[in-house]
Amino acid sequence: QVQLAESGGGSVQAGGYLRVSCAASGGIFSSYAMGWFRQVSGKEREFVAAINRSGGTYYADSVKGRFTISRDNAKNTVYLQMNSLKPEDTAVYYCGARFAPGSASLYTSTFYTSTFQYGYWGQGTQVTVSS
């Protein structure tokens, strides 16, 4: 089983940037599809970005053009670079992992955007954007 640990959250003014990281351990990182979600207290966890085993990416419309998801398999880490931050980006950010066995080529066009599709989660990191 894989364990996930997010880091890099913090407070920033609107228009600023942050990069959050998610370090994985206990599994073969390259065998997992990864995703970032966020959650505001009292609301459901919502999809932000996904990256498949081949490095293909997919984004929620609300962050497209501002956020970039990437992965470094040598470091067992997935990143979310967040630029042009807005107050509505304020949330706890979680990374999720989904085991995707077999050849990476099987998943070239596959992206997981629902929470139930991920079996492993980190503890989250708070991102606060002030106006």
| Total strands | 11
Q: If you compute it from the alpha carbons, what radius of gyration comes out, rounded to the nearest whole angstrom?
A: 14 Å
Largest sheet: 7 strands, mixed
Helix content: under 10%
Show unreliable segments: none
* Helix-strand makeup class: mainly beta
Beta-strand percentage range: over 45%
Count the DSSP helices: 0
Q: Calculate the mean pLDDT score and round it.
A: 96
List keywords for this structure.
globular, seven-stranded mixed sheet, single chain, mainly beta, about 0% helix, about 130 residues, about 50% strand, four-stranded antiparallel sheet
Q: How would you characterize the overall build of this protein?
A:
The protein is an all-beta fold and 131 residues long. Helices cover 0% and strands 48% of the residues. The protein contains no helices and 11 strands. Strands 2, 4, 5, 6, 9, 10 and 11 form a 7-stranded mixed beta sheet that branches. A hairpin with a 5-residue loop joins β5 and β6. The relative contact order is 0.31. The mean pLDDT is 96.
